[in-house]
Amino acid sequence: MAAAPPGVLPSLVTGLVALGLYLALAPAVAGDKDSSEFTLVLARLGCAHPTGYPLYTLLGHAFVTLLHAAGVGWDRAANAWSAVGGAVAMGLLHALAARLLAREGVAARPAAVIALLPVAAFALNPLVTIETTLAEVNAFHLAWVMGAMLLLLAGMDARRGSDAAGAARRRPVADDPRRFAVAGLVAGLGLAHHATSVLVIVPAGLALRVQAARARRLAAATLAAAALGAALPLTSYAWIAWRAFHPGMPQWAALDASWLGVWRHITGFEYRAYLGHWAPSAVQRAAMAKYLWPWFASFATGALLWAWRGRGTPGPVRAAWVAIIAIATCYGFSYGVPDPSSYFLPPFLLACAAAPAAFAPWAGKPALRPAAALLALALLAQDAWWFHIGRERETAYLAFERRIHAMWVAVPFDSGFVFWSSDMVHRLHKYQWLDGEKPRIEAINPLTLTFDAPRAAFIHRHGFEPADRGRLDARLSAAHPSSIDAFSQVVSEEVVTEVNAGTRLPVVRFMPEVPQMTLLDKPGADSTRGHPAGAAPPR
């Protein structure tokens, strides 16, 4: 028999504690991956890479602007925005785990305590804190996933209550369109934030549809209410369209000023090459082997046990839960980016929420309390170590930031080209647009010049072709790159060579990862000169 779930206070406190931990780990500088891009986008209300993330941008801009006005640096403010998303996700994880436990008959107080275990296993995992302490979109996606599943549970409960009332009166009770409007609103919020929310929306929507079909009560008015609710947050994509036709900085270089360009941006069209294969970097493979797979496998086993044996949660919900975990996991394995770990976090989180409910029949056994206490102590010890890893990573980010800035200051000209073959080139844009340093230099990821819009803009500014297709094809045919990374490296080198040959301005190849900064000789000179980071190359 189901028990009353705990109130909101334990989950609220859990979220606040998580917020404090994430803020303590959030560095005062941008991190790796897309952190510097999102910092700029949030600070200047720009347009990020596909799919644009308009709600994240619009709401986050207000948040970071407010913090910056209070004296917080742009980087720290943007990182704090992710900390807020992570805290909401952890509070909702606690609430969801506690409610699933209560549905299996666990009383409110022990349910609130046991629900802390999945939070302890997830919140400070190093793969999670990358997303919750740096300017990234995934923390809020995790929060949305938890909120959507809580809504699914509430929707099923409302339906069961309506069915019972209808049975008592011996006639069906019509669905309340307001509930469907809220469901549509939540679905729209997910779609306006992260495209992979569809992996949750479809199975959850099917579960609701199955329940409605059983009761034979799916009126046109309820569907219209759901569509209207979804449309409201989706209008935020108008911001992407406005930016396409009114470009500013920062803006994703490949966003074309056309409706086709807008459509391709919001659908992630240019990322289609990553679909259908698995290509994590060596660093990611090692990190996932250590921090993801053992934990994910353990909690997924518990979630499957709950889906098989649980009786307090409706069957369609349990089926949807397992389907979402399976589909999202398969998607992660079929998206060939070098850093796919973030795509496994939503199914991992769902497994964490459901697994404790599988052991609800033993929750009140006094003989198991010592084992539960040992498990809690082990998780606390693990969290302490993970927190230490987070602090070490913060130190590494600070050191990397000092290296990059020293190299930037050492660039021996104020007008020319600095090529960095990384999306982290936005760090250099931060120095230019937020700090006013070397504003006349063009800091470019050479790969962007292979896209039509930035290539055309470059030709308009400088009068020559930066990425001749014939020479690119010939270089690729000779190199035979075996991976996307190798392909990108060949293309980047050819673009840099083309630009250096076509301009009288100085050109630097910027490689802080090595670290090395190379001032390129013009064609006909003796050689290309390489210089260690922090040392100014000769003019």
Query: How far is the N terminus from the C terminus?
Result: 79 Å
Number of helices: 22
Number of domains: 2
Q: H/E series, N to C?
A: HHHHHHHHHHHHHHHHHHEHEHHHEEE
Q: Give the averaged pLDDT, no decimals.
A: 89
- Estimated share of beta-strand residues: under 5%
Shape: globular
Q: From the alpha carbons, calculate the radius of gyration and give it in angstroms.
A: 26 Å
Largest β-sheet summary: 5 strands, mixed
Helix content: 55-70%
Unreliable spans: 162-170, 526-539
- Oligomeric category: single chain
Number of strands: 5
Looking across the biggest beta sheet, what order are the strands in? 2-1-3-4-5
Structural class determined from secondary elements? mainly alpha
What features would you highlight for this structure?
five-stranded mixed beta sheet, 539 residues
Q: Could you characterize the architecture of this molecule?
A:
This protein is mainly alpha-helical. The chain has two domains: 8-390, no CATH class; 414-532, no CATH class. The chain has helices spanning 8-25, 35-44, 54-69, 74-103, 108-114, 116-122, 126-132, 138-169, 177-191, 198-215, 220-234, 238-245, 259-266, 282-291, 293-309, 315-333, 341-354, 369-410, 426-433, 452-462, 469-479, 484-502, and strands at residues 417-419, 442-444, 507-511, 516-519, 529-532. It has a five-stranded mixed β-sheet, with helices on both faces. α8 runs antiparallel to α9 (177-191).
